[in-house]
């Protein structure tokens, strides 16, 4: 079973040791970019809980970027390199088409926009099988369990889809959108073939 983002982050944070982990938490709170993390939220968190906080706050891809940034800021370049290498390996795995059932990224572009962005309105209005789509996105690590709950909390199907596209999927970038498109092809084949035929 391949290592997940969470496994990799936990391993790197665990390897920091107590003092460097404390410096990591301190520097994380000094970040000015949104979303920010308050000192009280990270105080005394172990690597597992800290990883959970990072992925909930920034999504998995964003958590990697933030962790790399903070590790470099505290001169833990080995940890930053390990995460950078992991991220590159993940990206090449997806874009090479090696991901099981994954459509190649460049083929999902229409007029310099990803298919999901290009047909955003149609997807919001017409996707009907949202629960199994959410289940598969969670299973494949594109969204976190908190994002899953946030999307499910929306009252209408359209608001759920809007929430999915606006928050966790936007943060996951084209890789996450490629996975969503694969899932849509399985769950909503007639809708996707109709949109692709336009």
Automatic annotation (TrEMBL):
Q: Which residues cross the membrane?
A: none
User: Which residues belong to any copy of the Pyrin domain?
Assistant: 1-89
Q: Does the keyword Cytoplasm apply?
A: yes
Specify the protein name: Apoptosis-associated speck-like protein containing a CARD
Q: What SUPFAM superfamilies has UniProt attached to this entry?
A: DEATH domain (SSF47986)
SMART domains to which the protein is assigned, alphabetical: PYRIN
Q: CARD domain location, by residue?
A: 113-198
- Species the sequence originates in: Hucho hucho
Q: Where in the cell is it found?
A: Inflammasome
Q: Which GO terms describe its cellular component?
A: canonical inflammasome complex
Is the keyword Cytoplasm assigned to this protein? yes
Q: Name one Pfam family in it.
A: PYRIN
GO BP = inflammatory response; innate immune response; regulation of apoptotic process
- Which UniProt key words apply to this protein? Cytoplasm, Immunity, Inflammasome, Inflammatory response, Innate immunity
């Amino acid at each position: 079973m391949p290592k997940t983002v969470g496994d990799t982050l936990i391993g790197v944070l665990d390897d920091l040791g107590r003092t460097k982990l404390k410096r990591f938490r301190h520097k994380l709170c000094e970040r000015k970019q949104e979303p920010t993390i308050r000192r009280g939220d990270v105080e005394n968190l172990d690597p597992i809980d800290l990883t959970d906080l990072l992925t909930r706050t920034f999504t998995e891809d964003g958590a990697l970027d933030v962790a790399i940034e903070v590790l470099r800021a505290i001169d833990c370049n080995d940890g930053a390199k390990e995460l950078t290498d992991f991220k590159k390996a993940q990206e090449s795995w997806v874009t090479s088409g090696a991901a099981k059932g994954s459509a190649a990224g460049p083929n999902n572009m229409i007029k310099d926009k990803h298919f999901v962005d290009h047909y955003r309105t149609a997807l919001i209005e017409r996707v009907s099988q949202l629960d199994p789509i959410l289940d598969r996105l969670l299973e494949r690590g594109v969204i976190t369990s908190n994002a899953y709950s946030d999307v499910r909390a929306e009252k209408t199907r359209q608001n759920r889809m809007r929430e999915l596209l606006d928050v966790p999927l936007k943060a996951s970038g084209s890789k996450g959108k490629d996975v969503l498109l694969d899932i849509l092809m399985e769950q909503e084949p007639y809708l996707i073939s109709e949109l692709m035929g336009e």
